[in-house]
Amino acid sequence: MRIIAQHITKSYGTIKALDDVSFLVDHGELFGVIGPDGAGKTTLFRILTTLLVPDKGDAWMNGMHTVKDYKAIRKILGYMPGKFSLYQDLSVEENLKFFASIFGKKFDKDFALIKDIYAQLAPFKTRLAGHLSGGMKQKLALCCALIHTPEILVLDEPTTGVDALSRSEFWDMITGLKNEGITTIVSTPYMDETARCERVALVQDGHILQIDTPARIIESFQRKLFSVKTNNLYKALTDLKAFDSAHAVYPFGQTIHFVPKDEGLEKNKIQEYLVEAGHENPEVEPDRPDIEDCFMELMRNE
Amino acid sequence: MNNQQKHIIISARDMVKRFGHFTANDHLNFEVYKGEIFGFLGANGAGKTTAIRILCGLSKPTSGEIKVAGLDVYRNANEIKKNIGYMSQKFSLYENLTVWENIRFFAGIYGMRLKDINAKGRQMMERLEIEHLRNKLIASLPTGWRQKLAFSIAIFHEPQIVFLDEPTSGVDPVTRKQFWEMIYETAQNGMTVFVTTHYMDEAEYCDRVTIMTEGKIIALDTPQQLKKQYNANSMDEVFRKLARNIE
């Protein structure tokens, strides 16, 4: 195991940021920590990167203890904090040279780990880091985190606020690193990015709700689910919420996900109810849950 | 939105904004209808924020003919501000003020009288079921409550248009869904909602969507039409196809 976290608890005053968090990450694994702002993602990552001491519990990175062996751990970590932390008044190339020199290395653009990523940055190598677009800044930060050949990569919300295309490109890069044998732990508030990880921990209010592969999380959704379409979505939403068979009703783009209380409820019952409420030809079809359905069901059971 | 008489509430003709040699908005043309949920999407640096600042009367365009709520952005910028509401995830409420102090402060900025603020503020807190939180600091509220309150305050003075700049960034899925329900309700009541987001699934909630890249609008239509036109299953796919084509 490359990352071991056991019963980690951390409070700030009266606020419990992490409450008894335990998990394992295997060698070469791409592990996601998925949850909204305030779930405790950054606190967890600061403990794993030796920047914060937990109140209770222990963590090991590559067999080294995060409190006792913090100096040794820092040599094998690549860390990208949530806030952009490169030197804005240095150029792309100067930042890379600087971070390489801190670790006693020379910056080499052909170095295998960063070659493909640097190729995208190369046209801007003389530009100041502060003048890069959001997506490019994140690519540079990733390059800087990889420059000393880390064994474990810790990425705290690398795609937050980044547009959908740049986000997708960034995930392609992280996935590519797997072939280099790097263990990666990455956090994100975007639920749809769950699918890009091998295993994920869903977190909320300092707790882990579930840890599993994305496929098994979807499979573990115990209830029936229907997609509903009508020409008046807002009215359908209000009507379905008032339906006494409703367990959960949520808007999902141009459809509504309807989860009945009772397993046995057939789709024509829902259709009949909607027609009675004044909807013309409502479409109701059984559907698979989305990762958000799973997350919301887990939140409900907390 | 009803397809009856489409009443134009925002119109932009050849809207241009230059900063030195850089063209942030390059001849934008679009109309937004009353009661519509209008999605404004684009890559980072595409020029969305520049456009919103102009529409909110905070920045003067270089050229073009732009009207917001029937008012000219060159001459009536201050009037425009009274007719719009604004909310973003980054900045919405003052954390070190209480719920009530925030309501009073923002309503006061929009020129509402204290008597009206008192009456309406009470109603609003009743509707949101947060009367017991009246004297609590915003910092002490859970994200879900903050989000709903921020939105309610942004529309407290009953503006014609509300601008939402990445309103749901980083919030949990339940709050995000509830937030969109509030948006639906607001649009249903005739207010126009102008919204930016990085969540492509949220683009599917909009009546119509524009996609911007490099200062230009490259697509403007309903989500259904855009998916059909670009042979895509989701708005995420539409976005990635369009943004990639440009490069």
Task: Describe the 3D structure.
The complex is a heterodimer of chains A (302) and B (247). Chain A is an alpha/beta fold. Chain A folds into 2 domains: 3-219, Rossmann fold, CATH 3.40.50; 226-286, Alpha-Beta Plaits, CATH 3.30.70. Chain A contains 10 helices and 14 strands. Chain A has helices spanning 41-48, 70-76, 92-102, 112-121, 134-146, 164-177, 214-219, 233-242, 267-276, 291-301, and strands at 3-12, 15-25, 30-34, 56-61, 64-65, 77-80, 152-155, 183-188, 199-204, 207-212, 226-229, 246-252, 255-260, 283-286. A 6-stranded mixed β-sheet of chain A has the order 6-7-8-3-9-10, sandwiched between helices. In chain A, β4 and β5 form a beta hairpin. In chain A, α3 runs parallel beside α5 (134-146) and α4 runs antiparallel to α5. Chain A is elongated and about 75 Å long. Chain A starts with a strand and ends with a helix. In chain A, 43% of the residues are buried. The mean pLDDT of chain A is 94. Chain B has 247 residues and is an alpha/beta fold. Chain B has 9 helices and 10 strands. In chain B, strands 6-7-8-3-9-10 form a 6-stranded mixed β-sheet, sandwiched between helices. In chain B, strands 2-1-4-5 form a 4-stranded antiparallel β-sheet. In chain B, α3 (99-109) packs across α4 and α5 runs parallel beside α6 (173-188). The radius of gyration of chain B is 18 Å and the shape is globular. The mean pLDDT of chain B is 91. The interface between A and B is large, with 34 and 37 residues.
